[in-house]
Amino acid sequence: MDALLLYLHGFNSSPQSMKAQQMADYCRTERPDIRVEIPQLPCYPSQAAQFIDTLVTHLKPTYRIGLVGSSLGGYLATWLSQRHGLPAVLVNPAVKPFELLMDYLGEQMNPYTDEVYSLAPHHMDELKALEIGQLSHPELLWLLQQEGDEVLDYRQAVEKYAACRQTVEPEGDHSFIGFNRYPADIVRFLGL
Question: Which of 3, 11, 29, 88 is most buried by a 10 A CB count?
Fold first, then answer.
């Protein structure tokens, strides 16, 4: 079965994000046998969830799939991992985005794509509906977390993923400084 790495970017991000590109570059040079998919996710939570769920359902019969999710993509990757039994690496993941993004209600513009859209309270309900309370398969998840994350409280992720493999680094920031040290280990963990 062929290998596929599905990278899920964060809020107001895109396939052009640095971590997504570092992951793709690593696979292109070191593991060209791995197909890398970095879709531009829809802006609205239920649409994003439906999109990635349909994508995985379509690809699963043909590919051995591993997930990498950053920030809000980490939240979505957790949901997708537990739903489909897929391994996932979560990079500075959002744990309660439905609380965090309350500060972002109203008009938004994605700086990568220039797409303008509007976040409403019901979108926070859509996010809340995707929350995985109790992890049924913690062994499928690896948390990569930096304590210096200025956007998210790193302690939420450390607590949420307590039963999972964890690499918690002091300092750093939300972008995860030095991510380029990890692609080989990520591919190994995902079993690709």
Answer: 88
Q: How far apart are CA 38 and CA 84, in angstroms?
A: 18
Q: Under 8 Å CB-to-CB from 48, ≥6 apart: which residues?
A: 41, 42, 76
The CA-CA-CA angle for residues 187, 111, 175, to 5°, reads 40
Angle in degrees, CA 32, 35, 38, rounded to 5: 120
Distances (CA, A) of 172 to 91, 149, 154, 178, 179: 12, 6, 11, 8, 10
Residue 68: strand pairing partners: 7, 89
pLDDT digits (tens, 9 = 90+) for 87-136: 999 999 999 999 999 999 999 999 999 999 999 999 999 999 999 999 99
d(CA 126, CA 83): 16
Pairing of strands 34-37, 88-91: unpaired
Residue-by-residue DSSP string for 51-81: HHHHHHHHHTTTEEEEEEEETHHHHHHHHHH
Each residue's pLDDT tens digit, 3-53: 999 999 999 999 999 999 999 999 999 999 999 999 999 999 999 999 999
Classify 172 as helix, strand or coil.
Answer: coil
Using CA of residue 149, residue 140, residue 192, residue 50, what is the dihedral sign? negative
